[in-house]
C-alpha cells in the first residue's frame, strides 16, 4: 500500500542478498559469538550498576561506591556475591513450581534479543581465528518482530512472580506490570512501524544500512521520542517503575523473593536496559556507523573492528539517559502514567505513522517534495481550525454547565456518613461545629466544694 510493487520487490531481494552472509559459519564460531553476546551483556550490566550509582552520586553531590575495588569499581560484583550467599527462602503458600520459574522466565528472554543486533556491517566481515564472519550472531527477515516477541515473553516473568507469591503486594505489582507492558508496547510497535516504512525491511542489518545518509532519529524525530518514553516504561525504570514502587508496594512483584532469585530479577532489569538501548541505537542512531564527522573525514571509520566501538559508545549514551532520568524526575502517579500511554503516546504515534505513510506513498509516486509539504501544511491547518471551533463550543457548553451547577442547591455534607469520617471534596463544606462550653464552665466540672472535700462535693 505504501511502496510500489517494484520497490517492494527490490527491497526484498536486497534483504535476501544481505542475509546470505549469515548461516555459513562453523559451529564453533557460532558458539563463540553466542558466548560473546552473553558476555557483552553481563559485562555491560556489571559496569552499568557501578556507572549508575556513581552518576547518581555526582548528581546528588555525594561520593557513591568507593569501598570495593579501586574507585568502587567492584561494587556490583560484591552485590552479586552477597545476594548469592544470602538464604534462599520460599513463601509457604506460594506455588513452588511457578515461583521458581518466574525469575528464569524474566531473565532468559532479556538475553535473547541481543542475538539479532548488529555490532558491525554484514558485508565487511572480520577475521576471527582465520574465519571471515560478520559482527552479528544472526539476522532474520523479521528480526524486529523477534525482538518484540522476546520483550513480551519477559513480561510473563513479572506477572507469574506476583501471582505465584500468594501475597497482596506482589500480585498488585504483577498486575501493574501487565498493564504497563500492554500500554507501552503498543506505542513502541507504532514507533517501529515508521522505521519499517522508511527502511523497507524488518531486518536489523537492513535498517542500519538504510541509515547511511541520515539517522532515523533525524528523519523520524516523533518516532524516536515516543520510543524513548516507551523504552523507559518497558524497562520499569524511574519515573515509570510502577510495578516495584517501594512507596506503596514494598518491592512489587519481587517482594517475596530473596538470594539468587531476587538477583535474577535485578539482572533482568539491567539486561533490558542494555537491550532496549541497543535497539534504540540500531533503529534510530545509525547502529554501528560512526558519527557524521568521522564518517565523512575518515574512510576506514566503518571498517574492521571500529564499528563495535561506535556501537558500544552509543549504547553507553543511552544508558546514561536512563540514569539521568532516574536522578532528575520524580515518580509519576499510576493514573498519569496510564493516561500518558493511552491518551498521548498511542494517538500521537498513530497520527505520525499515517503522516509518514502518506509521505512515503507520495514519494513513490514521484510527487514533488514541495507539493508534499503543501499538502501536509494544508491538512494541519484544517485540523487546527476544526480543533479551534470544537474548543469554542466545548468551552461554551462547560460554562453553561458550570452556571447551572452553581445555581443548583448543594446538599448538606455529612462527614460521618457510612460510619467513617471523611474529609470534604472540592466544593463541599463542613457543617458548622456546635459552640463548645466556655472555659470557665469546663473548669467548674469536677471541682471540689467549699470545704475542699472532693467526695463530699461529689456526694452533694
From TrEMBL:
Residues spanning the membrane: 27-51, 98-120, 140-161, 182-203, 215-233, 270-288, 308-328, 340-360, 372-393
Organism superkingdom: Bacteria
Lipid bilayer topology: Multi-pass membrane protein
Region (Disordered): 403-460
UniProt keyword list: Cell membrane, Membrane, NAD, Quinone, Translocase, Transmembrane, Transmembrane helix, Ubiquinone
EC number, as in UniProt: 7.1.1.-
Database matches in InterPro entries: NADH_UbQ_OxRdtase_su1/FPO, NADH_UbQ_OxRdtase_su1_CS
Reactions the enzyme catalyzes: a quinone + NADH + 5 H(+)(in) = a quinol + NAD(+) + 4 H(+)(out)
Compositionally skewed regions (Pro residues) per UniProt: 421-435
Subcellular location: Cell membrane; Membrane
Bias kind Basic and acidic residues: ranges: 403-413
Quaternary structure and interacting proteins, as annotated: NDH-1 is composed of 14 different subunits. Subunits NuoA, H, J, K, L, M, N constitute the membrane sector of the complex.
Family: Belongs to the complex I subunit 1 family.
Protein's job: NDH-1 shuttles electrons from NADH, via FMN and iron-sulfur (Fe-S) centers, to quinones in the respiratory chain. The immediate electron acceptor for the enzyme in this species is believed to be ubiquinone. Couples the redox reaction to proton translocation (for every two electrons transferred, four hydrogen ions are translocated across the cytoplasmic membrane), and thus conserves the redox energy in a proton gradient. This subunit may bind ubiquinone.
Protein name, as recorded: NADH-quinone oxidoreductase subunit H
Species classification: Bacteria, Bacillati, Actinomycetota, Actinomycetes, Kitasatosporales
Gene name of the encoded protein: nuoH
